[in-house]
Amino acid sequence: MGNFSMYVEMIRIRFLMMLAYRTNYYSGILIYSINIGAYYFLWQAIYGTQESIQGMSVSQMTTYVAIAWMARAFYFNNIDREISQEIQDGKVAVEMIRPYHYLGVKTMQGLGEGLFRLLFFSVPGMIIIWLAFPIDFSNQWSVWALFFLSIIFSFIVNTQLNLITGILTFFLMYNTGLIRAKRVVIDLFSGLLLPISFYPLWAQDVMGYLPFQAISYIPSMIFTGGFVGSEIYSAIGIQIFWSVLLIIPIQALWMLAKRQLIVQGG
Amino acid sequence: MNVIEVEGLRKEFKSYSSRSGLKGAFRDLFTRNYKTLRAVDDISLHVKQGEMVGYIGENGAGKSTTIKMLTGILTPTAGNVTVNGMNPHKEREKFVRTIGVVFGQRSQLWWDIAVQESFRLLKKVYKVSDEEYETHMKEVIRTLEIEPLLDKPVRKLSLGQRMRCELAAALIHNPPLLFLDEPTIGLDVLVKMKIRGFLKEINRKYKTTILLTTHDLADIEALCDRVVLLDEGKIIYDGRLDELQKNWVEGKQVHFEFQHPVDKPALEEISREYPVIWRQGERVNQWVATIDGEDDTVSKLMSVVMLHHAISDVKLNKVSTEEIIRNIYEEGIKHG
Ligand SMILES: Nc1ncnc2c1ncn2[C@@H]1O[C@H](COP(=O)(O)OP(=O)(O)OP(=O)(O)O)[C@@H](O)[C@H]1O
Ligand SMILES: [Mg+2]
Prior knowledge:
The structure holds 2 protein chains of 2 kinds.
Chain A: H1 4-20, H2 22-47, E1 52-53, E2 56-57, H3 58-75, H4 79-88, H5 91-95, H6 102-132, H7 141-167, H8 169-172, H9 176-189, H10 201-208, H11 217-224, H12 230-245, H13 247-260
Antiparallel strand pairs in A: 1-2
Chain B: E1 2-17, H1 21-30, E2 33-48, E3 52-57, H2 63-70, E4 78-83, H3 92-96, E5 99-103, H4 115-125, H5 130-144, H6 159-170, E6 177-181, H7 189-206, E7 209-213, H8 217-223, E8 226-231, E9 234-240, H9 241-247, E10 252-258, H10 264-270, E11 276-280, E12 286-291, H11 295-308, E13 311-318, H12 321-331
Parallel strand pairs in B: 3-7, 3-8, 5-6, 6-7
Antiparallel strand pairs in B: 1-2, 1-4, 8-9, 10-12, 10-13, 11-12
Bound molecules: adenosine-5'-triphosphate and magnesium ion.
């Protein structure tokens, strides 16, 4: 890594770029608010008069939905599409003349994007939602701390999956389909739309072997108090496990990809 | 020590051709037809420190491919490359700190942010200290006259403005070796001259070695003592530009503009006795005669031609470099 101030600079530049395209950002706020509102009313209807479903109360559920979307603003990024684009127009090859690791730079750009949305989007959004809906915020600072630790790993795992999808463009050349499919799979299996504990048992077993729950389910469960005590630590352990394991396919694919490097035109 | 040492360098591209029809597409799934194209064919090249080398050749000759291999972007199919004493691939990160690259057809600046933000980022990327940046870049920015452009986003710059910024960006770490692939493409005469002057200046001041490709021979004439001429991936000439001029037709050119259409056989017929080559000029009814010989022969040829055909204009020129290169492209270097 070595060049810390360079990566800080990358993050700063991504901040500037996000500011340059503010309109995307406003429409993002709208989409997120609509989603949270819709899920709120949906869950209200599903719960009806029941006190709790699968051990979650209705206010826990509301909090789950809100926090899951707010966390998504942080871990979500478009670097898969960017990498794919840069591979297709040959920009990746030209990046080889820079003394840095391309994937590292992309990750930092993703982080810049995430931090931007966390500060200018999630935080104000959370305040509005807190005023509009009955949401339980934990008053234990340790829950907050663990939640923030956990969304850092959400970011790492999600970004790693994005890197893999992006690099696959080298071998597929046109992979918009794959990128879209990946997005749907993550929204479904990460626990963003539905907590994992609501899935049928066999599906829960399958998801236990997949990295997606590390993205949304774990931090949201920590925040809503769905996980307590040692459950929290083993959940973060799962996130760490995936963060480390996913390095292997990324490195392998990148080595193969570099051999395929072809620059179009010029 | 040579800055660039290239021995037997070769690059082959495989291109797949798809068979026609459904049956063909199905067969493509299993075995694919492919052709190999040798873009760079066994070239050897040695460049010393401080040299400015013009790397020229027709479209598709393999210039860009060579530069991509020298900068470590593409892996060679065969051959040895040592640049700045390193193998561009094996020690990529260390190596790229010692070179600067400009691809005229491709921007390396960040499109959406102001030029100075790109510079600031590159300064961090190359770990350039504040003092170095101050002394060196201030100078670069002044010479290229890009001060007023610094706070504009790259996408709002004109081509010439952008190219000057690209050049400055490639020099942030003051590299001892500079690769320029068509740095003057699409630029107006004034910007071209500014860039030439600038390159000359850094070459003089820092002994920066420069390898540049261009289709504008005026760039080469203004900058390079040495030209390397590439044709279908092979080096067909490597030497001084003025030698090339001397070895090629030492002669004169006469541009005739006729009042009526004339054809080549007719011209050849009347000028049979003279060592002359006829070529259709750029304008209608314009023909160019290249003559190898004394002034006397030239005047005789002119009077013979005028005797047979009505002309509206005649011009007498020395053979230009452009003309020489054009002939080489068209006919190869068989001429001694
Ligand atoms: N990625 C690639 N895949 C297949 N063939 C390629 C590729 N890149 C270049 N070529 C071929 O290699 C040859 C040399 O191309 P190159 O770009 O080096 O030419 P050049 O001398 O730079 O030409 P120009 O003056 O037009 O820029 C061309 O025939 C080109 O079609
Ligand atoms: Mg080229």
